[in-house]
Amino acid sequence: MRILNVNMSIDPVLGGGTAERTVQMSRFLASKGHQCTILTLDKGVTQQRLASLAGVTVVALPCMVERFYAPTPSLSKVMKLVKESDIVHLMSHWPLLNALVYVCIRLQKKPYVVCPAGSLPIFGRSKWLKKLFNFVVGRSMIRNASKCIACAPSEIAHFAPFGVVPDAFSIISNGIRLEDYAAQDGASFRRANGLSDAPFILFIGRLNEIKGPDLLLRAFCTIKDRCPHQLVFAGPDGGMLGRLRKIVEAESLQGRVHFVGYIEGAQKSSAYHAAEFIAIPTRSEPLSIVLLEAGASGAPVLITDQCGFDDVERIGGGVVVPASEEGIKAGLLDLLSRSRDLKSMGQKLKQHVERVFTWDAVGLKYLELYGTILRSRDAPT
């Protein structure tokens, strides 16, 4: 098959989880002998990233307006890429690059799938622009897809306002490469980021409202005198860092709360392994890739009921709480009271991730879906 994956960014700092999903999915498809091309924007594309995509063709359009990740108009180039593909995969929902590709798809009557990855609800800034985008192109882009891909069952409700019928869904989770989470040099991570020897709770993700770092920090402040733990925020600023620092200062927690910025590779793996547990206080996110990374590292998790994986309690890999300050406080106290059980909980989560969420398992679902779509198009009517 010839597959065109479309994502506005393949840079993990700018693109976050969807960038990683696109990169890892493309690697898997290429490893199975399929011709895979990624169409993206050039912002954040490095030689290191390109080298990690051996066997995958990357086409990076110039980014004309960084605020909206608007591509320089390249209709002829995009038309050619769509024409040469058997199926197109649109990742996320709001990028203008997706809209440009969608126009080309419709003109050439190509099959395509969409994976919004939790981005359909209108959240955060530019709400009126998002409503306008949906009115002009967004609704039809979702409605006309050959299949809509939800990362978790909880995401299916996001498609209801777009008029998507039940049989138009496929649930395909995020995937993980276990070999990326083998490094365990916790001492090096502590030294590099100024941590003491006290145990720490780890948050990994963009510091913005939807990820809920403020909920976690405020909950931690209410229990700060009941535990010796440090709290580590690892991730790029998404507009909330200044506000979080003010809370830390007001609570005199400068020595216990650490903002270490974006981490990757061995340092990221070592952080997961060294943490007591991972906190994922998201306000809305279907099956956080951080949860899978924690599982691959054998770390238990505290997640909210908006994370799309309530089974984490059933399998004994962590706790699930309401997405509120009080809910997260209760979860923190729960896990901190079970310090002897944390290692066992992490191993249970790891076993589940190894069984269900590796790319060998997840990637085959994509191939089956693509094959079904293409066969149905070729079948005589």
Compact summary:
With 381 residues, this protein is α/β, with parallel strands linked by helices.
Low-confidence stretches: none
Main sheet record: 7 strands, parallel
Please, what is the average pLDDT?
92
**Per CATH, what is the topology of the largest domain?**
Rossmann fold
- Architecture (CATH level 2) name of the largest domain: 3-Layer(aba) Sandwich
Shape: globular
Q: Supply the number of structural domains.
A: 2
Proportion of beta-strand residues: 15-25%
What would your notes on this structure say?
- By secondary structure, this protein is of the alpha/beta class.
- The protein has 2 domains: 195 residues, Glycogen Phosphorylase B (Rossmann fold), CATH 3.40.50.2000; 179 residues, Rossmann fold (3-Layer(aba) Sandwich).
- 43% of the residues lie in helices and 17% in strands.
- A 7-stranded parallel sheet has the order 3-2-1-6-7-8-9, sandwiched between helices. It has a 6-stranded parallel sheet with strand order 12-11-10-13-14-15, with helices on both faces. A two-stranded antiparallel ribbon has the order 4-5.
